[in-house]
Amino acid sequence: MQHRTVQDVMTHEVVTVRRDTPFKTVAELLAGHDVTAVPVVDGQHRPIGIVSEADLLRKESVQPEPGGRDPIPRLPPRDRARAEAETAEGLMSTMVFTARPDWSVVEAARVMDRQHVKRLPVVDDSGVLVGVVSRSDLLRVFLRHDTAIREEIVHDVLERTLFLAPDAVRVEVVEGVVTLRGKVERRSTVPIVLRLCRTVDGVVAVHDNLSYSFDDRRADVEPETVHGIL
Questions:
Q1: Could you tell me if residue 65 is left (phi over 0), alpha (psi between -120 and 50 degrees) or otherwise beta?
Q2: CA geometry: angle at 227 spanning 223 and 230, to 5°?
Q3: Which residues, at least 6 apart from 69, have a Cβ–Cβ distance to it below 8 Å?
Q4: Which residues contact 178 (CB under 8 A, 6 or more apart)?
């Protein structure tokens, strides 16, 4: 049982540009390949920056209107320089957060969320660009069929990991929502089952309808209480 990796969902054929790629060529590549950003790579094909649609639109925002109705916005020096840039090197964002092919989709999603980025260049051990993973790529795990999710939970989680009897827990999956019914031996097993089911790719939520035969948590407390009284 393991999460899908970045290698499984990333785009392998990546459109890239070099430092000296002209503004208009970058715009044509974005439009022609229906992408919203392209990595900027050096001579060894290592990412050194990213140019996005927002970087190109910055130039449009500082252009004067024909009627002169609105004043040109004042920008910080760095943004002004990027708005006036003519090549990818001047346009690009140089703070590049990358992912590795063997990362789980969870790791990649956490980096995107933490750094507030929409995509991550994927690099190998040498820092060479081998792909790009985007938010939409990571969302593919939620396209998994309910049958595949159920099979993974039954075989990988319940039987192979927790060694539960095949008829102990009944699993129903509808639109990615997992419902668990049945009885396990120990109460402490229930949260473990729930946690492992939530880690399965494609699971939207887990509904708990499990019961237990023995409350082993209470058994752990009672000896200490008796000892305290004595």
A1: beta
A2: 140
A3: none
A4: 149, 150, 153, 171, 172, 197, 200, 203, 205, 206, 207
Helix (H) or strand (E) holding 163: none
C-alpha to C-alpha distance for 159 and 138, rounded to whole angstroms: 28
Indicate the domain borders of the chain.
6-141, 144-218
H/E element, 72: none
Question: What is the Cα Rg of the chain in Å?
Answer: 26
CATH number among 3.50.50.60, 3.40.30.10, 3.40.50.300, 3.10.580.10, domain 6-141: 3.10.580.10
pLDDT, tens digit (0-9, with 9 covering 90-100), for 62-76:
565 555 555 556 666
Torsion of CA 88, 89, 91, 94, to 10 degrees: 120
Please give the CATH topology (third level) of the domain spanning 144-218.
Histidine-containing Protein; Chain: A; (3.30.1340)
| CB contact at 8 A, 91 and 55 | yes
What percent of the chain clears pLDDT 70, i.e. is strictly above it?
85
The whole-model pTM stands at 0.74
Confidence of residue 166 (pLDDT cuts 50, 70, 90): confident
- Give the integer Cα–Cα distance in Å for 75 and 78: 8
